[in-house]
Model the fold of this input.
Amino acid sequence: MPKSIKLKLRDRLELKYFYDAYLRARRHKKIKREILIFDMDAETNLINLIESIKNNTYHLGEYRKFIVYEPKKREILSLPYIDRIVHQWYIGEFIKPYIVKRFIKDTYACLNNRGTHRASRVVQKYMRKMKIKYGNYYVIKCDISKFFYSVDLDILFSIMKRIIKDKELIDFTYKMIYENSSSKVGIPIGNYTSQYFANIYLNELDKYIKHDLKIKYYVRYMDDFILLVENKEKAKEVFTKIGDFLDKRLKLKLNPKSRYYPSKLGIDFCGFKIFEEYRLIRKRSVKKIKKNINKWNKLVLDGTLDRHKRLIQWNAFLNHSSHGNSFHLQNKLYESIIDNRGLDKNKVRNN
Done:
């Protein structure tokens, strides 16, 4: 990471920067009443927003809360539309240009041109290199217990203060981190800023693993991470040190399911079961698409199938599974679909 962001808050308090953020916040969003009202006089609303930030009268709105159950139960917090514009502006003008580019190359969550598929490919590439070098080696597979709910806001703010030089930008960052928070622990799932604050927080772990522990083959996707080491003794040593670092420096705990084990067992990571020679999609994903197919088949027989919705769901499965070795699985599932006209049979990708 850079020693500091020298850019000042007021250097980006111009309409053109907020208009770009407004377009990003609006992109791919359903047109709701609050968006329509803002759009009726967007330029004036943006100018008023800029003035409120200049005058230090801007405050975050109230969160809307809702629950999602995929893949597990989570509470999502959603801010009003105007605050989402501010988040887009803050991240786009200060965080992405000056901090993201300083992350290690092998962190893959919420970053352009990365993602789960690339992360799984890189893990497999590293596994192949370890196989050539050591034959049998060890995998350290970890994730952090209740990560978003456990981020210490004081530690996060201290990290940001090391990076930011401008006093007004520091104060605004304080607002982004602390305002509307009921305690000094936890960042809200659903905030655009939270994705980046999470990566900034765990960049401390990345630097420790890469620079202090000197682990060459390390991949992180948000709070899930994989390390490959030469033997069991090294795995035990590194695993203990990581747990101690998280506890003492970041006030985080490893999930009890975190462990180290022989590489022959493969790696369950980013939606795939990964081995040196092949990748399979998780059983959970196969179970989900089979459940969808059973539902589609019943709707076909009832004459109530939404074919467009089925096409979207099937193509999503094909796109994901094509990043693994799934040609035969795709064919088998395709044949189980009643009236599969209009659906591609399979999708093959060079891995």
Summary: The chain has a mean pLDDT of 92. The chain is about 50% helix and 10% strand. The two ends are 32 Å apart (CA to CA).
